Amino acid sequence: MAEFDLVELIRQRTRPRAGARGDIVLGIGDDAALLRMPAGHELVVTADTLNDGVHFPTGTAAADVGWKALAANLSDLASMGARPAWCTLSLSLPEADAAWVEAFLDGFLELAGAHGIALVGGDTTRGPLSIAVTAMGLVESGAALRRDRARAGDDVWVTGTLGDAAGALVLGGYLPPPPAAAPDPAGAAHAISVIEATHAAAVPEAAGSMPPGQPATPSPRAGREAAACLAARLARPTPRVEAGCRLLGLAHACVDVSDGLLADLGHLCERSGVGAELEIAALPASAALRAAFGERRHALQLAGGDDYELCFTAPPSLRDAVLLALEQAGTEGARIGRVVPGAGVRARSEDGHAWLPPRTGYVHFR
């Protein structure tokens, strides 16, 4: 299949959805797209690149790769309270495999259709498998959620559950199991060493190059059903778009959790000039993660990454309003800590011992 045949395949698959939006003047097929911006709105733009063996295991089903490539971008839009509108897709492929591209588009367009986002352009090239998506959304002028507006005294919240994706990688043999997560009563110094030692195991991308995918083999404590639930969360994360939109006017600051809770909340705190204290016991965990890892789950929840949940801050006076907004969005939420004066993110166990990890999430370049 030649390059322009590949582009035509993509254009034919996406044309019905693009036609459903009245704000696309010109889409796939020209040098660039022409889009009509509604008055009174700001454009929110984000971009993510997913590489084979780094962001997803080699051998991952093409439909799941397509879903995840878009989900990562939608999660960024969600963190700013933006409604998805348009996106572009750039594919680097070892070969022009029409069957693989069709399956990829199945997953990509399924998620796109659920959120009303239209594919309006992109690029194709030969090379190692890599997917780059740029997504654009709309938010009323001046209303967007940001990282830099958290205030001391705010509650810290998170949507959904944490640690499932990292748990799936452990059960799949891509990452070693995390050691016991509870800090030693000897004090915070041991807590630092625990987090430092588990960091590489807790962060999917820290593996560097994942081996070809193998079916997940549950540990004796994890049934096959639990392993399947975790694997589904890794393959097809749920971007919390509706939750982000409903948090407009309620949340002071927001960030999406993709590199790990401690790392991403740390970015939010740094931008806002504040610190945060978390209660480990309050971290929301799925039944599958509890079944698979028990108390060891906390290392995955704190630094596992690939969750694509929203972490946000809001004043205590709005707790009921936040819970109602999340309920209306069809999303569960948990209050996991508070914003404090100072700097840095600290997590405490139920017995009050501090976790002070020096490394809290994935960094591409060290």
CATH-scheme architecture of the largest domain: Alpha-Beta Complex
Largest sheet, described in full? 7 strands, mixed
Number of domains: 2
* Name of the top-level CATH class of the largest domain: Alpha Beta
Poorly predicted runs of 5 or more residues: 181-209, 211-216
Counted by DSSP, the helix tally is: 11
Order of helices and strands: HEEEHEHEEEHHHHEHEHHEHEEE
What name does the CATH topology of the largest domain carry?
Phosphoribosyl-aminoimidazole Synthetase, Chain A, domain 2
Q: Name the overall outline.
A: globular
Helix content: 25-40%
Binding site for Mg(2+) 2: 48, 76
Pathway: Cofactor biosynthesis; thiamine diphosphate biosynthesis; thiamine diphosphate from thiamine phosphate: step 1/1
Binding site for Mg(2+) 5: 259
Domain PurM-like N-terminal: 29-139
What's the quick description here?
The protein has 366 residues and is α+β, with helices and mostly antiparallel strands.
SSE map:
Layout: H1 3-19, E1 24-26, E2 34-35, E3 41-51, H2 62-79, E4 83-93, H3 98-115, E5 118-126, E6 130-140, E7 155-159, H4 164-171, H5 188-202, H6 224-235, H7 241-246, E8 253-257, H8 261-272, E9 275-279, H9 287-293, H10 297-303, E10 309-314, H11 319-328, E11 333-340, E12 344-348, E13 354-355
